[in-house]
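assembly run, all chains below
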Amino acid sequence: MKRKSKQKKQQGNLFPCSLEDVKTALSQSMNDNPDFYAKFIDISDQQRIGFYYISSITDDKVLYNQIVSTLMEAKKYLDYKSIDNMIPLPEPTKEKKVDKIDDHLLQGAVCIYIENETSCVNYFIPRQEKRPPEAPETESLIFGPQVAFTGSIETNVNIVRNMVDSKQLKIEKFLVGEKIPTEVQMVYLDDLANDDVINEFRNRLTGLEVEDILNSSTLSQKIEDNPYSIFPQLLVTELPDRFTYSLKEGKIGVLVDNSHTSIIGPITFTSFFESTEDLYSRWTIGAFIRLMRIMAMVLSISMTPLYVAALTYHYEVIPEALLLALGESRSRVPFPPLFETLLLETLMEFIREAGARLPTKVGQTMGIVGGIVVGQAVVQAGFTSNILIILVALSALASFTTPSYLMGSALRIVRFSIILISGVFGFVGFFFAMAFILIHLLRLRSLELPYTAPFYPFQYKDLDESLIRLPYVLDRNRAKSNLPKKVGRNASRSQHPIFRTSKKDIDE
Amino acid sequence: MKHKIKSILLILLTTLLLAGCAEERILEELGIITAYGLDINENGDGLLGSIATYQFSQQRTNENQLIFSTGRTAREVYSNADSKTAKQLVNGQLRAGLFGQELARRGIMPYVDGLMRNPLISDSVYITVTDLPAYDVINATDFEEAPNIGTYIYRLLEHAIVNENVVQSTMHEFVKNFMKVGADPVVPLLTKENDKIIIRGIGLFQDDRLVETVDIFDTFFYRLILDEYERAESRFTFPADDYETDLNNYGQGENNDQLSVSVHQIRSNTDIKLADASDFSFDVDITFEGRITEITLNLDLSDPEILKKLEEDIKEQLEDKVNEILAKTKELNVDPFGIGALYNTHFKKDEQLSATEMRENYPDFQFNVNADVKIMRYGITE
Amino acid sequence: MKHTVNIPDQLKFRAAYLFFVLYTIMVGVGFVPYPRDVYEVAGQDSWLIVILAGILVHLVMMIIIFCLKSYGNTDLHGILQQTFGRWIGKLIGYLFIIYFFLVYVTILMKYTEFIRTFIFPSIAEWVVAALCSFLVVYCIYGGIRAIIGTSFIFYLLTFWLNFLFFEPATLMDFNNFQPMFDIDSKGVIQGIQITAYTLLGIEVIWMLYPYVHNQKRTMLYSQLGILGVILSLLSGVVISIGYFAPNQLIEQIWPILTIYKIISFPFFERFDIFVVSFWKFIILPNLIFYAWLITRSLKRVNNIKQKHSIWVVVVLSSTFIMFFKSREAINQFVEISAEIGIYFVYVFPFLILPFAIYRRIRGANK
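ok done. output:
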């Protein structure tokens, strides 16, 4: 008991003491890690200075060239003020407590202590492997910029700052994780983002009580409104252009250190079917592709369940022209439709998963082997009907049109349960499942804002931000469902040639 | 609490899935009936059913499976048939019901009613009667590229109805006309020729009893009164003598004493109006437009006189034919055109004629037929 | 119990949603057999009856909203207790709850009968009840926002069924409407009564009124909602009369579904099978609203948590429908609850009206 309190006292108020004492104390709290270093130099007879740092995360070039050697050459009596004058680095932090120093050291600081002073100073010289931005991997674009976020938050903030050169861009910094803190930055445009939503997001981040977070994707799952749901309620993207576009729409972005992806919120269900590519391409193409994706989503979750329901219970609804083809292809299959479909859907998932786990080159081969060879063999062997193969392939394809990988996977899993219930209750079950999904979506919220906007609550003017895409001359408002501070885009269209001449007659 | 609820829901859902539905009807395990025929059996005391079903096989050789069975009622026929096949017979895809002439003359409503009551059977099933016993007709082995005799009948009738060759004959139409006071059903008449089913004309019903069959040529005029034409085709024949003065003969054929004209793209409309309720007299106004496609004698159609004469002749023949048909319906006491129902719409409920009164009065109906014929164009040569 | 109801701002909804609320609660199982029921008493002039009954419903709705407005920010139970005192108010409140429950059970029963007739002849009642209850509970747990949302989204998803009447409309025989205006006063009264049964559901406004954001527009949108329902009903009746022969219509149990029987698409034959399954989307808002009315009323009257009472509703209703197996029993039950409904929906507002007028006058004098 006594010892404990003594230790506590020692930890709290170590200074003033000798350099060796500091070393022991810090080394102890660093668990005697081998990459903890201390270096002592004598400036003059009266004065010794100690440097404490963790070699693996400090930039040794900066440390030796700009700090240690400068001080070594000083040859005069030093205090912290004169040190700061000599070192060309940003303002240091002054610390008195050992556990605070620990934290700084772990973030790449060097601690400078002048013997027998009552405090020490910390300079941040973190060593970060800066990687140049690479092309996006999971959310590839054909027409957009081929840039993705990197693993370094510095680089990511740099990218964002470069893309949004505005005074209004506000960045808030947090440390998330009690045991292993990770730096998290919340980014938004101050004149657009809604204060309540900002507060909500901030509270979610600061109120999070976890030991550590792995990356942005895990962080998003931890702060989502409904963690049980199958649908993601925050958008995780690796595209800086998507990130900055969302900021300009009045949404809030979060960058996480050591994470290739960023988080965007609040979002709606349809956000997952939008891609920045719709914005880059002309409006007809953009609008068409957007609608096509929504259609693909609906087809992807309904085609195979309807097949199962129709073939198990509702032979009446099969059109005369299809009846023969279906009957013939089914006649050799030894399983009921439900089992047959589940089998083939699972096979499809195996192929996808195997392709994803294997290195790219092997993965491609895997896809071909799985898709063509196995598919062909399965039909030849009479395990499934060839019409089902078409349907399963189509719905798998359709699910991959979803730009967000997370949402695409969620839909594929939803499909399994719909198949199951359709196989038990036919169309009744199918519509039960559909109704359930709809009610579930209606109940979901993203940062306390409705997930189904702009359909419910219905915002007629927001439809061009979600379901369709209008030509830019007509797109004059931000989506109201995000509750931005300013809805209008301040774009006067009167200067556009087409509106300048609208009062004139033809050929005038 | 929340977890408790969730687990309760989960258990509920699982039991639901396990309970499931027993009534699976998996496609390939079904004998899907596409058409069925009913006849009176040899002893005359029951029914003979001929049921055409799908039989699925990978070889695509023979998808047509016929099952014959007997029974006192249609339901018994059906259940007897079920014991003659390993598949579960279902009638949700039924396309056509064929009734043998002998049976149809006794009345078919008990069987149609059975179909009507079954929620699984579509209302657009075609009701037809057959010239030969339905058994013979359904036995036809040539059904073009259709996979099944039922499908073939369906396609045959659909084609004929779209082309306005026969009257609309869905079950809904049949029951509607049967139920209506002052209207009788009309259905297509099928027969077998060269081992292939063809349409031979129509059958006129009195209530649910077949009383008369009409051949395909006269069917045109029945349908003319019954419904509008938009694209039909017909032929008219006159004695050639009338046109002698302006004849430029083609060759010296043998049929030169007859002039036949084919008219196509006929657009027509028949308007029946009650003229005088006291003596049941009706005005039947027919407007008739068409184009000449074929003519057996070389007439100068650019001559307005000749065209006019042609129109006059067609009009006369049309009126004669319609009068003849109406007289025939009076004689048979069937009302395929729903004229009785039309009569009733002019009276309040208590003054309307009942079904039996209608039957009594129908032979007294008077018709004043008046046609308005117009020949529009006559091809690309004059 | 507090007389005035203060709803937090974020739970309120725009008055425009009342259109969808009223449409989805009024259109339900009653629609399908309606053309026959009304034809039996009113014959070819049934369309006239729909219009007359529609005017009546509009009028009643006007009175209800007038009452709500004069009582200020309160709902049915607040009005009852302010008008009749605590105990009688509570008693009438309970009667309303029983009525809501009866309607809930009726809907469930009818839907079960549907499924059994058209799709699964031997499915157990409790399975259908469970399939419905699950969704009802899930939606009620989502709160008022999810409930209104469900009604709105399901309206959008089911509205297109109206367009499918186009094909049957081409097969109509307009002679079936002749002779017009051949109806006596008895037929008119009976017909209006039958129509009134079908148009139950406007009572939801009694409870929803405090939740409306811009209460000034309540009148406009609820009347529009009723108009929408009347138009749908009218089209259903007109097409049924034209499509069926007079005697044939009387034999149909579910004329509207029979009409759907002739619709088929190249990729989907037999549309009636689809419609019966799809009918879930139509009855679900019905069930949800009535379940909400029951639980919300219980909360207002007795302060019972909605979270708990919804389970009671679900379990009770599921056991209830097990007792009614034959079509006759079901019909009888439906008839009784519809007759009770007349009093609760159409007579009750007239009872409150004088009090409301008195309140207005007193308020004006002050």
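The two ends of chain B are 92 Å apart (CA to CA).

The mean pLDDT of chain B is 83.

not gonna interpret more than that til we talk
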